[in-house]
Amino acid sequence: MDDGRPLFQQIAEQIEDSIIDGSLPEESRAPSTNELAAFHRINPATAANGINKLVADGLLYKRRGVGMFVATGAREQLLQRRRTAFGEKFIAPLLSEARRLGMDAEDLKKMIDVWRDDA
After folding, report:
1. Distance CA 117, CA 115 (A)
2. CB half-sphere exposure, 49, CA atoms < 13 A
3. Helix 44-56 to helix 7-21 angle, to the nearest 10 degrees?
4. Which among 59, 60, 64, 99 is least surrounded, fewest beta carbons within 10 Å?
């Protein structure tokens, strides 16, 4: 857990990853701040910041006296957000470079098919 980003962001992203891959399904209990702090050996306030980010994003909600839970629709919300980010980070630059090279959509599709077959 040290890739240059703040720890609370890394904690939030790990929980998001668990929601996306299904290991933390919707309406299931999320790890508590104390559990996260103990597991990662970090300050509970740091873990709480990660949890609070997810609450603010509408991905987690609190059941008083029980804990934090994954909100209904959280997985789809995360998938949509990451798809958008993927498009901005990879697809937009790909299309821009393809235009510079005089490639059209069919050329790109063929190239993707070749690379996919080689992978």
Report:
1. 5
2. 9
3. 50
4. 64
Place of tokens 């609190």: 62
pLDDT in tens, 66-77: 999 999 999 999
Sorted by where each starts, the structural domains of the chain and their CATH numbers stand as 7-72 (1.10.10.10), 87-118 (no CATH)
Q: How far apart are CA 35 and CA 61, in angstroms?
A: 17
Question: How many residues comprise the chain?
Answer: 119
DSSP class of residue 70 equals E
> Residues 51-105: pLDDT tens digits?
999 999 999 999 999 999 999 999 999 999 999 999 999 999 999 999 999 999 9
**What is the C-alpha to C-alpha distance for residues 26 and 48, in angstroms, rounded to an integer?**
20
Sequence-distant (6+) residues with CB within 8 A of 67 are: 29, 30, 32
